[in-house]
Amino acid sequence: MAQAWKCAGLRWVAGGPVLTWVGGRRSALTRGKRVAFEVASGGVRTCVGARGHACPAGVAVPGRSTGARCEECARLDRAHSVAADTIADDPRPYRVYVAWFGPGLVKVGITGVDRGSARLLEQGAVCFSWLGTGPLMAARRTEELLRAALCVPDRIPYARKRAVRAALPATEEERAAEIAELHGRATALGGWPESLTPEPFRGVDHVRAFGLAEGERGPGAVGEVVELVAGGAVGGELVSVAGPDLHLATERGVVVLDTRLMTGWELLAAEGDRCAVPVREFKGAAGIQDGLF
Questions:
Q1: pLDDT tens, residue by residue, 1-37
Q2: Is the separation of the CB atoms in 18 and 11 below 8 Å?
Q3: According to the model, what pLDDT value does residue 276 have?
Q4: In CA terms, which of 3, 162, 175, 194 is 20 to 30 Å from 107?
Q5: pLDDT value of residue 291
Q6: DSSP secondary-structure letter at 291?
């Protein structure tokens, strides 16, 4: 019987994106590589646990959940979480940033200085700039200031990010224009915490890291995987990787697979370009029928 593996998610490391597996194995994700797997027939997606510990009850979780955690493990995972704003005494320095994901899609956020730009790569930010550096609570107050004064969100749904990737502006200057303007308005605001050190605008572009540059970009995606299902399969040539998303050239066209949907399933190695899972068509795309297995 073929060996089954459990995916632990996608990580961005110094060498680029990698798929990680329970047990420590890693699979490098290089463009042009074939990615193909089957979901174990009769399998059930189970909770991935919290903070490095397995779910004690092995609770089944919905196929469409990107968190793959039961209610109790989700609560434990968010305890003492910077993202959930549940800690205030973290002594590490933090950075405030503005990020751009496509036309009209800008956000503000914070990340630990020790993480570098990993958080931005994980989110699929096409370009970004730092705004300032300081203690956690100063970074939090600055983030809130920008949200309230400039109406800048701190979250953008992944579905909106995916839908605009095929039509990004061609040059770095065009892609950075919105966050350059936002950076200027943000630094002109009064009320910044004194302990936060402002940083000048320096746009960092991830188009080449994601494989979305002109000349490298393959055909645009026609849809996104909604969920994995027992007995289903996904396979195709890797066109690009942005945030947690794999863009795969399958039998149904280029389809986006959010790797967070892979966690919690028993997966088997496969071959070919099958896409036998439910797919949601992007508006204006052709060739995809929703919900086929």
A1: 578 899 999 999 988 999 999 988 999 999 999 999 9
A2: yes
A3: 95
A4: 194
A5: 37
A6: T
Q: Would you say 259 and 245 are in contact if contact means Cβ atoms under 8 Å apart?
A: yes
Phi and psi, residue 161, nearest 5°:
-65, -45
Give the residue from 45, 25, 10, 22 showing the smallest Cα distance to 231.
Answer: 45
Rounded Cα–Cα distance for residues 97 and 110 (Å): 6
Please give the model's pTM, rounded to 2 decimal places: 0.89
CA distance 193 to 210: 34
Enter the tokens of residue 108: 């503000």
Instruction: Report helix, strand or coil for 235.
Output: strand
What is the per-residue burial (b if ≥16 Cβ within 10 Å, else e) of 79-118?
A: eeebeeeeeeeeeeebbbbbbbbbeebbbbbbbbeeeebe
Query: 229-246 pLDDT, tens per residue?
Result: 999 999 999 999 999 999
Hey, what's the torsion of the CAs at 124, 130, 132, 135, to 10 degrees?
Answer: 40
Q: Is the distance from CB of 127 to CB of 137 less than 8 angstroms? A: no
- pLDDT beyond 80 at 218: no
Report the distance separating Cα 124 and Cα 161, nearest Å.
8
Structure confidence by residue, pLDDT tens digits, 68-94: 999 999 999 887 666 555 566 678 999
Instruction: Assess contact for 278 and 267: CB atoms under 8 A.
Output: no
- Residue 202 CA to residue 179 CA, distance in Å, equals 10
Say how far residue 284 (Cα) sits from the centre of its chain: 24
How far apart, in whole angstroms, are the C-alpha atoms of residue 290 and residue 136? 44
Distances (CA, A) of 253 to 65, 158, 219, 247, 285: 24, 20, 8, 10, 10
CB within 8 Å of 255: residues ≥ 6 apart: 221, 222, 223, 224, 225, 234, 236, 247, 248, 275, 279, 288
Question: For residue 205, what are its two tokens?
Answer: 């572009």
- The tokens for 167 are 């039509």
